[in-house]
Design brief:
Elements lengths: L2 H9 L7 H4 L7 E5 L2 E4 L4 E4 L2 H4 L8 H11 L13 H14 L12 E7 L2 H20 L6 E4 L8 H5 L4 H4 L10 E3 L19 H4 L5 H15 L6 E4 L3 E2 L5 E2 L4 H11 L3 E5 L60 E4 L11 E6 H5 L21 H14 L2 H18 L8 E7 L2 E9 L4 E2 L6 H11 L2 E2 L6 E4 L7 H19 L3
Parallel strand pairs: 3-16, 5-6, 5-7, 7-10, 10-11
Antiparallel strand pairs: 1-2, 2-3, 4-12, 8-9, 11-12, 13-14, 14-15, 14-17
């Protein structure tokens, strides 16, 4: 065993890892990275197929981000945001507000989300939104104990407040005694929806579902029931378009817009957790790419019709919109960002909110209406410098087209996996994909968690030089934007081989 691996096993405790299993074999020790590849201590190279747990946007050791950090390091690495401002964080806040104000129509509008609170990561950015929404509800409605609503299978981080919003027993049940109570409503999980009357097909279940939007009815019923008690929800928290840790559950088109309208109608605010989905992850394939050859559409209740638009050269394409909410023209009351905020370089989070929320915390000193919350590394200069460099890359027109083309290539390659009977559903939203493995695709019969199917498939992929991490029996592919088409082909080919090897299916 390599000396570094021995030291790791002796001293470190890894997140979301059964350490008994970890100690039973030599761990892979990463020492360098370039572009979409990683290199371990023994010199072996791997494709980084999940962007180092969904964080890395532009690839490892990107020259532009490296230069930005080096230039900032020559000035100052960090100074406190408690009573002081700094240059890169100020510019980054402005850029985030401008990016969040972009619309599909390209029309300029005053930004609704015009205040930015920086924190350390996705969990803490969620915690900021929770505290602000909680106190805003108390101050503006007189509610003594504001409540929150989130989706079944929700995961919004690992701080106590964020865990309180979660509804994955495996992650959250053990901490029940520490948490405040939150309510849940069914997620729009088309593949396993009890209201979907369609028989399984070899296509994304969203494309052939047969339903009457009963999932929306459930949201409305839950909001209405809480309102009748005279205590409307302070906020509903959602991951727009796709739920990550729930199993890459991709929402049908129109669900977010309909839900946001209901939330507002019942006097609640909307918290959009875009820790996973932000910064171009949900960029759709270019329209000329068309659907995969395996896509089939059955009769069903359609999503809300999109207004026809003639493409104006000045109108933003999908790749120009950096946030998932923008794809359905939804502007939340809180936008929670992290992971890709610095391009995957440094830990940093941000919570964007409105002037109304900001104003509720204004007052004379002795009123103590201050937002009493903060972090030692809030608005860190190195992280902000990396974030600015990342935004420069993301907002370059050529980069937006590249993401659209890469999403189309991923869609094309994923279609080849339908030949495998263990593949039950393939859910893709832009450059995020989840491949759900099942015992029987004709009946959607799942594998049991104890069978470790997802883990075993990912181990087989690692032996072939592709790294990713499953969510249960769902294999996750989230490539960095610098990934080449050849590397996409290799990634999906390896996934198919790993499924065949692990499950003995052809």
């Amino acid at each position: 065993m390599h000396p570094l691996a021995k030291l790791d096993q002796r001293f470190l405790w890894h997140p979301f890892t059964q350490m008994r299993d970890w100690l039973a074999q030599e761990p892979t020790v990463i020492v360098s990275g370039k572009g979409a590849t990683l290199r371990d201590v023994r010199g072996r190279q791997y494709l980084d197929a999940n962007s180092s747990i969904w964080t890395n946007l532009h690839g490892h050791a990107h020259p532009a981000v490296n230069r930005a950090i080096e230039a900032q390091l020559a000035k100052i690495a960090h100074s406190s945001a408690l009573g002081l401002a700094n240059e890169p964080a100020t510019y980054l806040g402005k850029r985030l507000v401008e990016a969040a104000a972009q619309t599909q129509s390209g029309l300029a509008r005053p930004p609704k989300l015009n205040k930015v609170f920086f924190s350390d990561d996705g969990s803490t950015a969620t915690e900021v939104a929770l505290k602000l929404a909680y106190e805003f509800a108390r101050r503006t409605t007189g509610t003594r104990s504001p409540r929150f609503l989130s989706l079944a299978g929700a995961y919004h981080g690992d701080t106590v407040g964020a865990v309180s919003l979660g509804h994955i027993d495996l992650f959250h049940k053990a901490y029940g005694g520490l948490l405040f109570r939150s309510d849940q409503v069914m997620a729009p999980y088309c593949y396993r929806c009890p209201f979907n009357r369609a028989k399984p097909q070899r296509a994304d279940a969203r494309e052939y579902r047969k339903c009457r939007w009963e999932c929306i009815d459930k949201v409305e019923a839950r909001l209405a029931a809480q309102a009748r008690r005279g205590n409307p929800y302070a906020a509903m928290v959602v991951e727009p378009l796709i739920q990550g840790a729930a199993g890459m559950i991709a929402h049908p088109r129109g669900w977010l817009r309909r839900t946001s309208e209901l939330v507002r109608a019942f006097g609640a605010q909307l918290i959009a957790d875009e820790v996973l989905t932000g910064f171009g992850r949900t960029t759709a394939p270019r329209p000329e790419a068309g659907p995969s050859s395996n896509a089939r559409t059955a009769k069903r209740s359609p999503a809300p019709a999109e207004p026809a638009r003639d493409r104006d050269p000045a109108t933003p394409s999908d790749g120009d919109l950096l946030f998932a909410c923008q794809k359905e023209e939804v502007v939340p009351d809180f936008l929670v960002l992290a992971k890709g905020l610095t391009g995957g370089y440094l830990p940093m989070g941000a919570t964007l909110t409105t002037q109304n929320v900001f104003d509720a915390f204004l007052g004379e000193y002795q009123e103590f209406k201050t937002f009493f919350h903060g972090h030692s590394y809030t608005a860190n200069q190195l992280g902000a410098a990396a974030g600015l460099a990342s935004l420069d890359l993301l907002q370059a027109p050529a980069h937006a087209r590249r993401r659209e083309n890469l999403a189309a290539k991923l869609q094309e390659e994923l279609a080849h996996l339908w030949r495998l009977p263990a593949v039950g559903d393939i859910r893709q939203v832009g450059l995020i994909a989840g491949i759900e493995l099942v015992r029987d695709s004709r009946t959607r019969t799942p594998y049991e968690l104890r069978e470790r199917v997802g883990i075993r498939v990912c181990e087989a992929m690692a032996r072939r030089g592709v790294l990713t991490r499953p969510v249960g029996s769902v294999i996750v592919l989230i490539p960095p934007y610098c990934t080449t088409h050849t590397q996409i082909e290799r990634t999906v080919q390896v996934l198919g081989e790993a499924i065949e090897e692990t499950l003995r299916v052809k």
